[in-house]
Amino acid sequence: MSRDQLVNDWVAQRFPEQSVSLAPASADASFRRYFRLTWPDGSTRILMDAPPDKEDCKPFIHVAGLLAKAKLAAPRVLDQDLDQGFLVLTDLGRIGYLDALNADLSLADTLMRPVLDTLVQWQLSSTAATLPPYDGTLLRRELDLFPEWYVGRHLGIELADEDKVMLDRTFKFLINSALGQPKVFVHRDFMPRNLMVVESEETLTPGIIDFQDAVYGPITYDVVSLFRDAFISWEEEQEIDWVVRYWEKARAAGLPVREDFGVFWREYELMGLQRHLKVLGIFCRLNYRDGKEKYIEDLPRFINYARKTASRYLQLKPLQNLFDRLEGNTEQIGYRYK
What sections of the chain are H helices per DSSP? Predict the structure, then answer.
């Protein structure tokens, strides 16, 4: 039986004689899919389809509980069938932050400022040993995606030994910076695409989705994910304004951010570079392994992020030089075509 048929049969069996309609709601970079269930009275729910041989629903359920405990807007789990990989969730609506921003950038400040309060509230709810640690092993595994999938598979280049040594030294520098930061709950993909516009009578509340990979780790990670995003970029003046506002709110709330904003900004940038090198690898893997071609279009955005950060720190000058060669004459010394 096809997965599509299984979805339809499961809905029919779970909601017999209720005339529930089923329509695609969204898909993400994993094997999960989302459908909107609509009843005749107009009420809706979201069905998550997560094939159990490819996805584990338990982390999603766990983090959904943490978000509910923190009193944040996020899908609540109403029903579950873990054997077949189905969850029924509350519906946060149809308007995502990314769509809203792309439709009208003049709303950026109005939309983004409430997210700062949401992020602070999420981080304030942090407790150790509740989520997996964002440790050195995981950080390194993510960074290794860059030479494997971006340099090796996408560019078709085999790095010379001296470049491998340089990357190893650079990766250790980034990992040490990350591990030296204060730790909080980390969504791990906290960006406009994973935020929903949830409107009440009085306020605009950001809804949080796609949170199943949450960990306990560096306090700057979600901040830099938000403002150095995969699908939309900001002028640096606007970025700094929002980051300063977050930092001020975090300090006022008692979160363990650095007292010196300059120190915080440096950690923020280095954390962002770790993420951007990882994403360059992930987006290439999505294309070549999983057949999801659209992600390749956003590689230049991440190269720009990475180059800008590398140009600002002496320890990262060799990485900047590598990007110069990767983007220029690929026959220069240091690597060769496979």
Answer: 3-14, 58-69, 97-103, 108-124, 136-143, 145, 161-179, 221-227, 236-253, 261-288, 299-310, 317-327
Q: Which residues pair with 184 in a beta bridge?
A: 217
Task: Name the domain boundary from 89, 120, 139.
Answer: 89
pLDDT tens string, the chain, 338 residues long: the values are 789 899 999 999 999 988 999 999 876 667 899 999 999 999 999 999 999 999 999 999 999 999 999 999 999 999 999 999 999 999 999 999 999 999 999 999 999 999 999 999 999 999 999 999 999 999 999 999 999 999 999 999 999 999 999 999 999 999 999 999 999 999 999 999 999 999 765 678 899 999 999 999 999 999 999 999 989 999 999 999 999 999 999 999 999 999 999 999 999 999 999 999 999 999 999 999 999 999 999 999 999 999 999 999 999 999 999 999 998 744 443 444 34
Last residue of a domain, one of 61, 89, 117: 89
Domain of 102? 97-337
